Structure formats: structure tokens, C-alpha cells
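Catalogue entry: protein

Sequence with per-residue C-alpha cells
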Amino acid sequence: MQKRSTVGRLLALAGALTIGFSMAVPATAKENKPAPSSSVSTEATASKINVMGLWAHPDDDASFITPCGVWHERYDVQCGIIILTRGEGGSNSVGSEAGPDLGLRRENEDRASHYRSGTLDIYNIDAVDFFYNTSAPLTEEVWGSERIQRQVVRVIRQTRPDVLVGFSPSMAVGHGNHQYAGRVVWEAAAMAADPTKFPEQLVGPDAVKPWQVKTITSGGQTTGTGGTTTAANCNAGFVPAADNPFTVVGTWSGYDSPYTWLQGNVQGQPAGTKMTWAQTGREGFMVHATQARPKFTGVYAPQCLRYGIAQSVVPFQPNGSAGNAKDEAILYGSVLPDPGGMPLGSTYTIETSDYFQAPGVPFTVKVSAKSGKGTLAAGNVALKVPAGWQVSGSTALGPITDGATASVTLTVTPAADAQLKRYPISATFGNGSVTAYNDTRIELVAGVEGRFQRWGNYSEYDQWADEFSHVGGRSNAERQIGAGESITVPVVVSNRTTTAQSGTVALTLPDGMTADAASKPYSGLAAGADTTVNFVVTHTNPASPAGTNANITITTTATQAASTSTETLKLYVVPTTVIPQAATAPTIDGVADDGYGPALDIGRKWEGADCSPNGVDCGNGSTMRLSWNGDDLYVVATVVDDKVSAAAPPERCFGHWLVDSVEVLLDPVGGSRDTSTTFKSGILPYTDDPSGSAGNGADGPCWSRDADNHQGFSSGPLASTIEGAPNSPGQQVAVKVTRNADGTYAGGSYTVETKIPLKNLPAAVVTGKAPTGAQASNDVDPKYLGLNVTPYDSDVTTYIGKTRTAWSPFGSQQSEPYRWGHAYLDGYQAPADRSTTPAKPIIPNTALMGVESPQTIYQSATRGVSISGLQPSRALKITGVKTNPAQAMIDLTSSEAGTLRVYAWKGDYGMVPVWKSSCKGDTLGFSTCSPDDITAAPWGTDMGGRLLDSLTYSVKPGKDKIHFKMSKQVSSALANGGSLVISWQSVSDGVNAWYFPVK
């Protein structure tokens, strides 16, 4: 490899095109230009990022565009973004791309959305975007926590961000990928600063150093009142809500951006006048066309974009202060000097001995400081605590030097009668010339506290929060009970006082519930210890249609501490049914035979628009009937519906929620944590298949499994194409459906009948006695088959869902099996050799790798940060590159086997326009001057015309020459402002990237 300062020196052929080969410093993001000469990742200086966002999917970061534009333009801030996936598992509303091809398109949408804000550094970590779920633990298992942590930590150590923003780690965020991304913010920030974490990154020619992120906003609340949306310094006058213990900062989006309204714009704005950053950012926000976001053609009003400071190791400005009102307040202490006077680079922290504290029980608060430059005179720390709380200890702090950390520890005693809730605690330092502020939070809980024992994702979340951060609060107390069933309700009693305690735990039950005791005692509970008190709760009506919530109040008292705590346990009361055995196997013909059980209501809405009118559009009158015979389950569902939806071609027999369909959901475990241990079959009653290529007759039905233990096509020839095929052998479907010429269903309904072999489920089905409504005759904590049947109603022919109904009509049916109903198979016994432990889920790895993305490779080569945060490799050296009209020739030497990928590219790597635009001067495609401009720009396998050609080459150790043959058309385009980007991935997963512009 030639040295960084060497001008390209190549062996030229007569008439050959030459490629630049120097290692020049890459252009800054602010210039928005490609590097002028060649570059290699392991030699380029890594980008310095000031504010880094971290999210799961392209488009999660869309709200980051506007503030980054303001910060970049006004304060010379460099924003960066870490995206854990490329969204290749998502939908596509404007093209046929799926899997890695969709990943390329969505990565470009993300880059295009941020392009005008100056954010050119977007690091995709190569995690697979798999099915929708609400489980951070499942996401972590599929992605591999250490792998994700390692790669994100390397990006942080290379880019050295001062501020991290992203999702909250709270379970309330919803999508499991989003929850886990919120966790990674906290995990990676802690690990990046810890020299014992991933020590291999700290040695060798590409060593990085531990890095301390200064400020984290993930999980910080922004609720409150006041402030303005019409003027700069928009946080002036903002008052956080009474239950918001965070410091809130804001940035106004009404500043003029460098971009102007073009002549003829459909919004009628004066040509040549400046767009606000609010407008520019909103146009970028809507660039994610594949995700059904239309091009933005309106005018967007300025906002005050707010962040809650969740954690900071540097001083900042408190709520209500003049400094806090400034639009740059989020940058104080980390990117910009704090107005209090501590030099940039100083640290000022506040820590409590524990997050959870009890009334009347003292705890310690440690305040520490270190100067960023020179020595600061000693001063005093003032703790701000709630009224009635006591603070003791010396408040003297300092002198504060740049050589060692100075600290002071104070004791805080909460009032004995303090309300149980979360409280802010702040520390202000002053020495007469310098001030510093920081704050934290504690949660006051009862000295003796009783809580419902968490399970599944809830338990796992609380364990994570105990280790990293309770910024997202505690998990909710939730569980399910079937109509007529009896379950154990365990209550964990914790003693946070300093003496042993005795007392009682009592339950307050709603109507329709009984318990084995109204209250139960505990005694001799040592200080700091826990004990568990178990109750048996029974729902008394097995015939209830259920689908309701029942709240149980848990009250725990302690005699010695005079302590009382309460918690509300939400029980999802789900319907139960007994599935009868059919004397003979039903005929699968779309008609319910005599062996089926009674009709059960599947017309109650759980998500989407109301059925209007109910019973015609959808809803009332939709029923299912069930039976079993041998080792097979039978379901017949009649769905009330008026309008016909889109008819999907067989290759689009997925995404059943976008068309009229029926989904059968089966959980052999009963109450699974997530759907990876379940069976879910989405059945489309008809297709656009006039030739019958799917094997079910002309325009016949199709079915596939979704977001379960083995997703993918289940019917027709496509069933053999999935990983581990087949996924539902022996499943049969028949339908009774007639579509009228006017787009309605004949008879106002359709019927789907299916036979599902129980061997296709991921585990053996085991069910106990049917519930009776009385504990004495019930199985306590019974075994059952989790079951739901959910019709989907669309009403349009454009793949957009409208209404979702079900037998057990609770939200999150797609992802949370504990909300499904409970079925008991009367007399069924699974084969003795069938395991009751679920099979390991088959989740296809369709992730697009960074080494396969020209835009990522270019960024790595010119910005100096390794592809996807993988360990850099210098095992391969490119010793010469030259082209002629027929080919490019690449000389290389490698000490390790691996894969080299070469991409010929024409144009800017930063973004490919997503939308068409007829506006004169609009090269980026954001502006609209014609109704036709709202359509997506051409994409295809050539990435909108930018990707000219590519080559993948297996490298063996030693010297080699690659001949990259090109057509005359490709060669001509390459000669006119084109370039090559090259990625290398060794067998040990080391990576490197090169950029060679053609000269």
C-alpha cells in the first residue's frame, strides 16, 4: 500500500483510464462533496461526531434531521447516526425489492433524508431486520447482544460522540427492536468508557481508546408547558410537568436553512425565499417512500424540539435558567462551554447510593468534579431536595484540578411521610466565580414493598434496568387468566428498612374473581431481604366471552415500619373454549361439518378503524368453529365483510394484514413470552393467480406463516423456497368466496376452512382439565393451547389494512401470545415422542451487510470509520488499480483469505434522489412543481442509475490480480466522473474499504 501522502502512481496502459490513489484527507460533511482523491478506511482520519443518534431502523431517525440541520448550520456541530439494521425486513410500498435489495433502498432513503442537514455519517450495524415483535429479549437473542455491543462500541470509540440520543429503553416503546436499540444507547455508552470491555479494540495498528460519552437523552421525558414555537430560544418559559423530574432543553426549528423555495412550487411560496429548517426537515422526514410515506407537499410550521437530559457527566443549565432557554443548551458542557464557567472538558457528576430509596431511611449522594483546564477554586455544593428532607455532611468541594477528581459525599434523609414517587435531586456548585449544575433522580418506594412477581419480558426488563438505568421506569404488573381458570399470583415482599419486619399482604378483587384468602401474613423478614407470598385467584365464569381487563389491588403492610404499599395487577381475562373431538375427520371444503364445536365470536375489534356499519363492513356475525381429529386441528371461520381487498399474486403471499385475510394463531406453550415459540398462519382467501400457479386453482387461496417459529411461504411451489422448508406440511385450506364485479362479496361474507397438523407446531400440545370457575375443581395454573383467530379487513385494493378483529380482542395480537384465548382439546394426547420444549426458531438472516453497500463502503473509506463497526483488517493490500475500456485491473496482496467486492459507481455516494421533481434546479428531488412529482424516482438493481456494475471475488493468501470486465457503456460512464469502491472482509471478519475516483 502506498503511503497516505503519495500522489497516485500507476502503471498506465496506452489509452487507459487512471484512478487516483492518494490518501488525501476526506472532505468534511459540511462541503457535501465526494473526496477529491482516493482513500482507504484504515488510513483516513476517523470522523469526529458531536451528537450521535442511535436507532433500530432507517426512518426511526427521521425526527433527528431538523435539529441536526440547525446545530450543524449554527454551531458547526457534526451529527452522526447509528442504525442497527437496514430495514430489509420491512414493507415496500413503491417497489418489489425485498431482503438485501430493500436494505439498499432503505439505507439510501435514510441517507437522502439527512443529506441536507449535513449528516453524512450513518453507520449501519448489519443486524437483521426480522419480524415485528415487542420483545427486547427476543431481539437480543436474534442479534446477539455482544456482537451488537462490540460493533456499536467501536463506532463510538472511533467517532468520539459527546451526546447520545435515541429511543427510551422502556417497554412502552413497543417494537422490540426499538426497545433494544434504547438499551444499546446505555450499554454502549458504559462499555465504550470501560477499558475492560472489548480490549481487542485497544491494541494494534488500528487501536482506539476508551471514550466517555458526556450526555445521554435516551429515556428523558419532555412533558411540560410553556415555551414558544415562533421565536428563537424556544425553551424560554418552559416548565416541566410536575411528574417530569428531568431537565428539558429545546431547539427551535424556525431558523432559515440554506435551501430556498423553487420557482413554481405547489405550496405557492415566493421563489428564492429561504425554507425554514422545520420545512427542510419535514421534507426529509417524508423521504421514506418504501414505508408508505408520501412526498411532503405542504408547509410545515416551526416547532420547539425538546430533549430530556437523562444522564450527564458534565455541567449543564437547570430548568428555568437563562442558559436553559437557549437553543444550544443541549450542547452545554459537552460540545460548547457551559455558561457557568467550568472549562470545556470538565466533568461534574451527581450519584446516589441506589435508585430506590425508602421514606425515613438515609442514603448518600456523591458529587464529583474535575477541571477541563487548570485549577478552579474551592467552593460549596448545595443539594436541592424535596421540602422536609434533610441533608447532612460537609458541602466543601475543591480545589478542582485537571489532574484528579475532587468529590464530596452528603447524606440525605427523606421525610418519613414522603409520597411514594420519583424525585429529582440536583447539586449546584459555586465558588463565587464559577457555578456548575447537574441532577439525577431517585424513586421513593415503601420501606416494605409488595410487588407482583414479574415474568417473561417484564422480569427481564427489570433485571436490565437494575444493571444499567431505571430511566424508563419499572415494568408494569400484567398477566393473563382464562375465563373460569385458577392461577397463582405470587407477591414478592422486599424489606428496605434497617430492621426485621412482619405484616400482611392483601388482595382487593373485582367482581367475578375469588381468591384462596383475602390476605396472608409474612414475618421475620430481615432487613434487605425478600420473601414471596402466593395467592390462588379464580375467575368464576368459564362461559364469559371475556376480552376484558380485571384489576387486582395488592396491599402490603408492615407493622414495625408502619409501612404500606400498593400495586395494581392488570389481568387480561381471555376467552376459553373446549375443542371437541370430531368422530370423523372433517372434509376441507369451506363448510362446517357436524363434528365442529359451537360458533365463537371473532368479530370484536382489537385494532384499527371501527367496522362501519358493524356487521356489514366487518365485525358482528363473524364466527369460528373448532374441532380436532387424530393429530390435526380444524378451524372454519366465516367473516362478515362487504368490500373486496387487493388480490395478491402468489409471490406476495405474505403481509396478510394488508389485505382481507384470516390468521390462525396457536401457542403450544401457553402464554409464550413472544411469538418465536408459536405457529401463526395467515390465510388469503383469494389471489391474483388466474393460471393457478400457486397450486390451489385459479385465483385460489394461499397461506404463509408470519412472525413465528418458522415463518415463510406455506402453500404452493413457493413453500419449498424458504429456509428449512416446508414449514407447514399437510396444511389444507378451502374457501367459500364469491367476488362480485362491483367489488363486493356475494352474501356479504366469505368462509375459510383449514386443517392444521399439530405436528407443525413448535412443541407438543398439552392441555389439562377445562376450567370450571371453582378452585376446588380447577387445575391451578392449567396447561392449555393458546389460540386466536383474527380476521383482517382492508376495503381497498392498495395493500392498506383497515380493521382487525379477533376472538380474544386485545391489542398486540401479532406479538404477545399471552393475550390470546385458551383452548382445551378434550381427550387429545400428543405423540409420546413429541417434545414439549419448543424448537429453536428459524429466522432467516436476510440482512444486507455493510460490505455489500456502495454507500457504506464509500463512507468508510473516506470517513475513516470501519464498516459497520467491525474490526479493521490490514491483511489485504491493494497495490495497483487501472482501467481500460474493457476492464479494471486490481493488484492485491493478502495474508488472509476473504472476500473482495468491487462496485463501479457514477455520481454522488451521499444520496440518490428518492422522488421525482420537475422543479428547475432541484437535483435532490425534494421540491414539487407538478402533481406528477409525488411519484418515486426510478430505483431498480442499479440503485437509481448510480451503480454501474459490481464484482465479488474470493481471495486466497498471496498475490493476485482481479480482472473486473465491463461493458463499453459502463466503462464510458466510469470515465466521466465515475469511481470504484472496494470492500474487503476477511474470514476472521476484519474489514477494510477503498475509494478510487477515476481521473
In short: The first strand starts at residue 17 and ends at 18. The chain is about 10% helix and 30% strand.
